[in-house]
Recover the amino acids of this structure.
């Protein structure tokens, strides 16, 4: 059984800007950008060291359930390999 070494990373993408009006003396009414988060989407990616194969998955959350879905997806695409996945450290 071949060994496949994979490095994993996740990222968060979201809408973080919103247009707002603020008070100014008449007739000025500038539009400014306000940092108001609406929604996030998360992406998991893992790349294989030996051949550069990239596995990706877009999910609505980062939690143990979504991580398990990603792990199941990666393992299903490489059924003949023993996989060692190095996960990113947030600390």
């Amino acid at each position: 059984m071949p060994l496949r070494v994979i490095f994993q990373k996740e990222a968060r993408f979201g809408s973080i800007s919103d247009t707002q009006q603020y008070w100014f003396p008449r007739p000025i009414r500038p539009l400014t950008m306000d940092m108001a988060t609406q929604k996030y989407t998360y992406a998991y990616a893992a790349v294989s060291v030996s051949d550069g194969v990239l596995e990706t998955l877009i999910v609505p959350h980062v939690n143990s359930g979504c991580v398990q879905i990603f792990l199941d997806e990666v393992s299903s695409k490489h059924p003949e390999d023993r996989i060692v996945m190095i996960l990113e450290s947030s600390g």
